[in-house]
Amino acid sequence: xxxxxxxxGSDPIYITYHDEEWGVPLHDDLKLFEFLLLEGSQAGLSxxxxxxxxxxxxxxxxxxxxxxxxxxxxxxxEQLLNNEGIVRNKLKINAFISNAxxxxxxxxxxxxxxxxxxxxxxxxxxxxxxxxxxxVPAMTPIxxxxxxxxxxxxxxxxxxTICYAFMQATGMVNDHTSDCFRHKQLQ
Length: 187
Hints:
Shape: globular
Helix content: 55-70%
CATH superfamily: Hypothetical protein, domain 2
């Protein structure tokens, strides 16, 4: 049996996420947008809660199509607030809509969401060498800069802790512990 980061536990969904997605450098604008929204949904909750609802989110939010989300009306908002397959938090759902608008404006201005986000790590992953999960920070100066920049662009639910979790998930940082088989694979 291979050694994994201790947070991955024994839930098959978490193990698959750990082994196949977490920490893998992601450069697709729309996938980055999806992860940013989902990380914001996690605020105050556990990631496993969101991960188990991810397919429901994709269905409820038109596969995270920012053009569609940006144009949601009151009827769609009510539909989302009644959707038991997602976290029915009005602030978070409204943030999806405002973040879609901010995403479209940023793409218009910067051309690439990927380039904007990855510029915070000079377009290459930061490889950390943590021995234990307890060493891994909740935020860093880089995630604080990313958070401020995203907020200036109009994004919501993008605090420094959410940004750091986003950076970990999308491979901007490799925070697999040194004893985890994925740490070396992702260097």
